[in-house]
Design a protein that fits this description.
About 60% of the residues lie in helices and about 0% in strands. The chain contains 4 helices and no strands. It is globular and about 40 Å long.
Length: about 90
């Protein structure tokens, strides 16, 4: 299994556990919007919890609301941001 596939599973589990979702991790689609119509129905409080969890679990700091909107749009966008953060962190070493 690729690192991206494993990371997607971890992100989905984190969402279910931190937000106490009614969905299981397996029910969340990779490209499913987390907010708005057709999404998981998350709200601004959930968004804050996701931002805190990403910082705590992956060291990914999201500096402003506009960046947060882009990063936490879907599981795919979260995974891309975490992978980019990891790449930048490894380059700095």
């Amino acid at each position: 299994m690729s690192n991206s596939a494993e990371l997607k599973k971890q992100i989905k589990r984190m969402l279910v556990e931190n937000l106490m979702l009614q969905n299981t991790a397996d029910e969340i689609k990779d490209d499913q919007p987390l907010f708005g119509p057709g999404g998981l129905g998350l709200d601004s409080v959930d968004a804050l919890q996701v931002v805190v969890a990403l910082d705590k679990n992956y060291g990914l700091k999201i500096p402003d609301p506009e960046t947060a909107r882009k990063v936490i749009h879907s599981v795919n966008t979260i995974v891309a941001a975490v992978e980019q953060h990891r790449t930048e962190a490894s380059i700095k070493r």
